[in-house]
Amino acid sequence: MKLKDKVAIITGAGRGMGRAAALLFAKEGASIVIAEIDEDTGRKTKSDIVKAGGKAIFIKTDVSKSEDVKNLVGKTIKEFGKLHIVYNNAAVFWFGKDGYITDIDEATWDRVLDINLKGTYLCCKYAIPEIIKSGGGSIINTSSSAGLIGIPKCDAYTATKGAVIALTRSMGVEYAPKNIRVNCIAPVAIQTEMVKESNLIDPEFDENKFLQSTPIRRWGKPEEIAKVALFLASDDSSYLVGSVVVADGGITIQ
User: Fold this and answer.
1) What CATH number should be reported for the domain holding residue 152?
2) Domain annotation covers residue 200
């Protein structure tokens, strides 16, 4: 019960890494706030947690909208009276729309930045005062290999993921004295629905070739990233501030 009596907001918790983290955090004793734009998947995650004996609420949230995020934090405090953990997991990668910077439509650029970067900003902006009131806690941001190395044909996504790392480090310096640890996960090649969808429509993607170029020779699982998030959310990582945990099976070092 590493998160006993803690309250955690997890964005994008309807599927993929966010859902895996919500299920694991609940198993470890946290009350979960599922912030998800898709009602069906958000309610399914809530139902599965409650059926397993955990505590969870679902709040439909577009993380790029200030009013939605204010509502998210407000309802969290109304329901649970406190807040300790925010896992900024929600993100979008649009294969076919994102691409080389000279080819990206301005509307696509704006939307990717709104979800991936502005969403992180808004969740931190409105959640941090409540985390301070609750005695401190942990913020977990989500980057990617795209924030660490050059990845072609996804310049909008890459810009957001590099910015998330820089923001994590800056916030780490600012809020550690207030008992809030800010850290970041950079997952790569995780078999989420979003990754599967992008690979399926990429005519140049060769799965066998890709896996042979990966040191660990396999895809990562959402549950593996959830365990990293649990470590960062819990007191097990009490001395980590501004860290970037690269969970990639060795891809970025190769």
Assistant:
1) 3.40.50.720
2) yes
**How many residues are listed for the chain in this entry?**
254
Residue in the block written with tokens 């895996």: 20
- Report how many domains make up the chain: 1
What would the pLDDT profile of 57-68 be if each residue is shown by its tens digit?
Answer: 999 999 999 999
Is the whole-model pTM more than 0.85? yes
Q: What is the pLDDT of residues 173-231, one digit of tens each?
A: 999 999 999 999 999 888 877 765 655 456 676 778 878 878 988 888 999 999 999 99
User: Is residue 253 in a domain?
Assistant: no
Q: Say whether 157 is catalytic.
A: yes
> Is residue 174 in some structural domain?
yes
46 is a domain residue: yes
pLDDT surpassing 90 at residue 95: no
User: Which residue among the candidates 121, 126, 157, 175 is catalytic per the annotation?
Assistant: 157
According to DSSP, the residues that pair with 244 across neighbouring strands are 184
pLDDT number for residue 151: 84
Q: Which domain holds residue 211?
A: 7-247
Which three-class secondary structure state does DSSP give residue 124? helix
SS3 helix, strand, coil % of the chain, rounded to 5? 50, 15, 35
Residue 249 has a CB neighbour count (10 Å cut-off) of 21
Please state, as a whole number, how many other Cβ atoms lie within 10 Å of the Cβ of residue 50: 14
Contacts of 141 (CB under 8 A, 6+ apart): 88, 120, 164, 167, 168, 182, 183, 184, 185
CB-CB neighbours of 156 under 10 Å: 24
